Amino acid sequence: MTRWCALLAVIGAPAFASPDYSNGISGEDAANLVAAAMEASGLTTGAPDAPIRPLPACGHTPTITPLNGSWSTAELRCTDPVWQRGLRTRAALAVPLRDRSDETPDTPAPLVVGLTRSLQAGDMITADDLALIPGSTQSARDIFTQIDQVVGRRLRTSLGVEQILLTRHLEPDWIVQSGTPIALQITAGPITVIASGEALENGRVGDVIALRNLSSGQVVKGIVIGENSVALRPNID
């Protein structure tokens, strides 16, 4: 009789136990849950790998979805008790495809340059910080459509993840910066001489800036004609 009871107990036991999150969700468990949800959506890379703070207790496995359609941030929701958290991932910005079989074809939104993570004012932008994302209501001169147009530039203001980059968000694209050595082009009739100089102001192509001729020590003004290159012209005020 004892043997039959034991056998029935084994047969009646569940194949696996549901995870118990009644005492909270560890950072490791949260990362694994997000990774599993991303993999189920077809993303095999980009899951969070940085240390993650523990999450509150939950009476069930939290529901995990991409925030605003992008897996760059995963949203975890619990209904027992009610709470929600956003967890940043390393996934590139992405917008899931919709079923458009019953829709009238329309013009696709243009792809523009946006941020894959939050950056602070003064940060230099790298290629890893950028992705092409759909949509913009800005004029063509305010947006960027190529990632290499922005790499190496510095932010004028702090911006959040998925922010579309506009020209006003960036520091001016100086090709001559104050305090840097420059090639000073001095032309007299058919003769052109290149002297060493030091820029005393920032400048873009066509700007008139103050500079110091290192040979004479004289402070003069010239026209920016290229990267770290300034032409001295007579009668420049």
**Estimated radius of gyration:** 29 Å
Backbone shape: elongated
Uncertain runs are 1-16, 93-98
How much helical structure, as a percent, in the residues?
A: 10-25%
User: Which band does the percent of strand residues land in?
Assistant: 25-35%
Number of domains: 3
Largest beta-sheet details: 5 strands, mixed, barrel
- Secondary-structure-derived class: mainly beta
Span between termini: 110 Å
What order do the SSEs take from the amino end to the carboxyl end, as H and E?
Answer: HHEEEEEEEEEE
> What number is the mean pLDDT?
79
- Annotation, overall tally of beta strands: 10
Q: Strands across the major sheet, in which order?
A: 6-7-8-9-10
Please count the helical segments. 2
Written overview of the protein:
This protein has helices at residues 2-12, 27-40, and strands at residues 63-67, 70-79, 82-88, 111-115, 130-134, 181-188, 191-199, 208-213, 219-226, 229-232. By secondary structure, the protein is mainly beta. It folds into 3 domains: 17-88, no CATH class; 108-171, Antifreeze-like/N-acetylneuraminic acid synthase C-terminal domain (Type Iii Antifreeze Protein Isoform Hplc 12), CATH 3.90.1210; 181-232, SH3 type barrels, CATH 2.30.30. The strands form 3 sheets. It has a 5-stranded mixed beta barrel with strand order 6-7-8-9-10. The chain has a 3-stranded antiparallel beta sheet with strand order 1-2-3, covered by helices on one side. It is elongated, with a radius of gyration of 29 Å.
